[in-house]
Amino acid sequence: MNITFEELRRIKHSLPTGSIHRIAEELKIDEQTVRNYFGAHNYEEGQIVEWHLEPGPGGGIVHLEDTTILNRAIQIIEEHKISMQ
User: N or C terminus: fewer CB in 10 A for the chain?
Assistant: First the structure.
């Protein structure tokens, strides 16, 4: 899947507090791996996530090999919107 880096960061910043921990716990991965997925670069902790950045508008185009974290983040944002109504 391709997404702009800007959009990927917008999704990360739209997550309610505690969502990074929640995603990590649900997927049984390190929290830093989730942060790395959204563009952090702390490779001392967590895993390097399989995505590739091509220069371009919107911060460039990110090609995501696995969208599991992204899909879960979008679900959490949608759940949060519903709960706020």
Answer: C
Domain that holds residue 29: 2-83
Task: Read off the pLDDT of residues 34-80 as tens digits, 9 standing for 90 and up.
Answer: 998 998 766 565 555 667 788 888 889 999 989 999 999 999 999 99
Number of domains in the chain: 1
Q: How many residues does the chain have?
A: 85
Using an 8 Å Cβ cutoff, are 46 and 30 in contact?
A: yes
Local structure of 49: helix, strand or coil: coil
The answer, as to whether pTM is greater than 0.70, is yes
| 8 A C-beta contact, residue 65 and residue 2 | no
Q: Read off the pLDDT of residues 4-24 as tens digits, 9 standing for 90 and up.
A: 999 999 999 999 999 999 999
**Residue 4: helix, strand or coil by DSSP?**
strand
